[in-house]
Amino acid sequence: MLESIAARQDDLVSLTRDLIRFPTVNPPGEAYEPCARYVGERLAGSGFEIEYVRGEGTPGDTDRYPRVNVIARREGPRPGPCVHFNSHIDVVDAGEGWTVDPFGGVVRDGRVYGRGACDMKGGLAASIVAVEAFLEHRPDFPGAIEISGTVDEESGGFGGVAYLAGRGYFSRPRVDHVIIPEPLNKDRVCLGHRGVWWAEIETRGEIAHGSMPFLGDCAVRHMGALLAAFEEKLFPALDLKETRMPVVPEGARRSTLNINAIHGGQTDDFTGLPSPNVPDSCKLTIDRRFLLEEAIADVKGEVVSILDDLKASRPKFDYAIRDIMEVMPLMTEKDAPVASAVAHGIREIFDREPDYVISPGTYDQKHIARLGHLYDCVAYGPGILDLAHRPDEWVGIDDMIQSAQVMALALEDLLFAERP
After folding, report:
1. What is the reported pTM?
2. Which domains occur in the chain, in start order?
């Protein structure tokens, strides 16, 4: 089986290049359906039953940009567990700074370049080739194998895995084990991710003429006071929080807060014409990443406490806060079946113990756990995490081959229960 995967190198490279050439940029959600149907047609040729599911009514779903997911399932000749490989097909915008065509699938120096090569079309291609080689080697497998290509992971996964998980596609008895081929390096098992709380904070003021600001109350200045309080109180406190979670990189092994966006006053479509007003509203979007040791109520309480202190001490300070998203931290145990199976594959291919890591950011495992109530899930795939979303993103060809071999061994392990 391992030799068969190595012999499929040209096919693996061609498949990866084809997937990159679908410019599945999110937002707005370009080329989702043609990419999903390409994956479906490929897997139909390997005997899979294909289902296309549109995430109707989810954020961004329109007739122009339909949120189309593909789920492929092949049943074995006798009962057994189901192993599911889930990859997202959406990619972020290419941005500037590329030296190659971001959607050309350029092959050079043992690498495939392109937006999504690393995150995570190389992983999707590797899982497909791994499964196809496994089926050739073990057509008598028990249970079922599923492969999905889902959308919108880069914007929260609501039209993809969240939509499907809410409808039973990632729950027992349909599925038992899930491997997500995110780019966490080929010799690592990713057990989960930190928690996240996104919120919008609005400071309020009173509008007045800009030539007489003393007649109004500037909401932007109030927001400045909040940012100063964050610098003085919150950021130092977050730096002191530690975790037992093996988060990578090391800088993410503590709590963090990012200021994602701030806006107040002048309209968003400002083109040079002045607006001589004192701003009566200023909005701030925060991205708070937190640890297994922290309770979500405490995470929110730290911010609300600072806001309440300002309201008590600063004249006319008033605010509103709105939750945007919250996801609890996740960490699958090392001895869980899917983690053990992937670790066994890594030992076989690389002759070393795997590293166990936690992702600094969330990925679709969050929906599989919170909506599907399925916890035997890890991320494992080719690609170097640091390359994701950057110019000249690439995935190594040898890395894809070796990761596919690990996936095939893990699949055999899970379906035939041959773990030591």
Report:
1. 0.90
2. 2-193+329-416 (3.40.630.10), 198-327 (3.30.70.360)
